[in-house]
Amino acid sequence: MADVPLQAGLDVDPWVAAGIVAGAASGSFLVEEEVRGLFQGHRSGVADALERVGWWYGTPLFTVPASLLTLAGGALFDDDDVRDTGLLMSGVLLSVLFVQQPVRIAVGRARPSAGEGHLSFEPFTFDNSRASFISGHTWSAFGISNVVARQVDRPWASVGLYSLATITALSRLYADQHWLTDVVLGAVAGYAIGTALWHEQQDTDDGNMVAGVDAAPVRHWLVVRFRI
């Protein structure tokens, strides 16, 4: 079992990074109603099409098969890089399942489409209309784009992958399914988890990633533990 701090790969002091994230979240929270009005007031056929692209890129209907097929392809052709990419993608999706989903249930924030405003919370509910915080589509999109871009290590791939992740984030606002804070923190969480997973993979001597992930606090860090 190996431990890797969640701040792995960041080039700034973790407290500074935490402050930046907190500031971004706070700023987003203050302008959520205005941002919603902006997105809902500008509809078009092109925007509708891009919304569908973003939805598909972040949905488990795409991400789960894509991860499993990548993993299977790497195993079938004995390609360690492809196999590790599939495992990294799977690790991101496991973080959505075991972290994002429980947070969503615990917070119970009303979606914008519910018409209850951005201050409406009903903790510990399974009602999908109260599944706004955090955006799972955005978490998955940024996490997967991060790890695949690092694995491919080509500028064109990074531009394409992060463009898709950004379209996914914006699509959730356009579809009136999430508030701005939900999307901002989803992007941060996905990127951070992807970075931690990738650095752990790089530090593994035999190059083998793992099939499970959990989290535990160690001093003031959140540590991700990987287990075969």
Automatic annotation (TrEMBL):
<dbReference type="Pfam" id="PF01569">
    <property type="entry name" value="PAP2"/>
</dbReference>
<protein>
    <submittedName>
        <fullName>Phosphatase PAP2 family protein</fullName>
    </submittedName>
</protein>
<dbReference type="InterPro" id="IPR000326">
    <property type="entry name" value="PAP2/HPO"/>
</dbReference>
<dbReference type="InterPro" id="IPR036938">
    <property type="entry name" value="PAP2/HPO_sf"/>
</dbReference>
<feature type="domain" description="Phosphatidic acid phosphatase type 2/haloperoxidase">
    <location>
        <begin position="85"/>
        <end position="198"/>
    </location>
</feature>
